[in-house]
Amino acid sequence: MKPILLVGGGGHCHACIDVIEREGAFSIQGIVEQSGESPVRVLGYPVVGVDADLAHLLESTPAALVTVGQVKSPTARMILHDLLVKLGADLPVITSPSSYVSTRASVGEGTIVMHGAIVNALASVGRNCIVNSQSLIEHDAVVMDHCHISTGARINGGAEVGSGSFIGSGVVLREGVHVGSNCVIGAGAIVVEDLPASTRYVGTL
Questions:
Q1: Would the pLDDT of 203 be above 70?
Q2: CA separation for the pair 165, 200 (Å, rounded)
Q3: Are 108 and 130 in contact (CB under 8 A)?
Q4: What is the dihedral of CA 59, 64, 67, 71, to 10 degrees?
Q5: For the range 85-89, what are the long-range contacts, defined as Cβ-Cβ under 8 Å and sequence gap of 24 or more?
Q6: SS3 at position 26
Q7: Torsion 177-182-185-187 (CA) sign
Q8: Burial grade of 16 (CB within 10 A; 0-12, 13-18, 19 or more)
Q9: 162 pLDDT above the threshold of 70
Q10: CA quadruple 46, 97, 110, 134: dihedral, nearest 10
Q11: Separation of alpha carbons 36 and 201, rounded Å
Q12: Sorting pLDDT into bands at 50, 70 and 90, what band is 91?
């Protein structure tokens, strides 16, 4: 197994660890935290440094995954992703063995597909995304970079989600709907019309 660093040790990291352990392709070398964070271990794995140590840590462990969560803003994940790219890190796609990713779909670097998720034929998922547990990205749908498709969300065929958007738990996007960049769509919303960029906490449309 290849060694990998996890960047961010909060709740989302806990879920990522479980997926990585189940996938079995990588061995977790340790967690990288923000400066001033206090934990010394995360689910049994050591905290091996802070963000400022990444250049040194990547010399011996070139693979890394951003494991900071994303709800209201993608900014933290984007900053860390861009830093890792600048430092020449290898950003693998992590896929739970209980998920399904079609061989005709595409998934960008640094994205994690979590337990029970489905990415169907000709769907496209960008870089540094979270495709969370039991979510569905249907045929021909497009999810752009730095998005979080949350638990149980349904992105129906041909729908498009703009970069940096958060699609909350149980949200349903009608087929062909376009959601702009940097949107936050609240849990349970049903979206049947296009939404402009930076729409926040939408109910049923």
A1: no
A2: 10
A3: no
A4: 110
A5: 87/54, 87/55, 87/58, 88/58, 88/62, 89/54, 89/58, 89/62, 89/63, 89/64
A6: strand
A7: positive
A8: buried
A9: yes
A10: -100
A11: 32
A12: very high
3 pairs with which residues across the strands?
Answer: 27
Number of C-alpha atoms within 13 angstroms, CB side, residue 81? Answer: 24
**Distance, CA of 125 to CA of 136 (rounded, Å):** 12
Contact 202, 185 (CB under 8 A): yes
Of 9, 58, 62, 4, whose CA–CA distance to 28 is shortest?
4
The residue-averaged pLDDT of 99-106 equals 98
By the 8 A CB rule, do 76 and 47 touch? no
CB-side neighbour CA atoms (13 Å) of 162: 15
Q: Are 43 and 17 in contact (CB under 8 A)?
A: yes
Measured CA distances, 74 to 42, 84, 118, 144 (Å): 23, 16, 22, 12
Q: How far apart are CA 49 and CA 124, in angstroms?
A: 34
Q: C-alpha dihedral over 165, 170, 174, 176, to 10 degrees? A: 30
| 3-class state of residue 80 by DSSP | helix
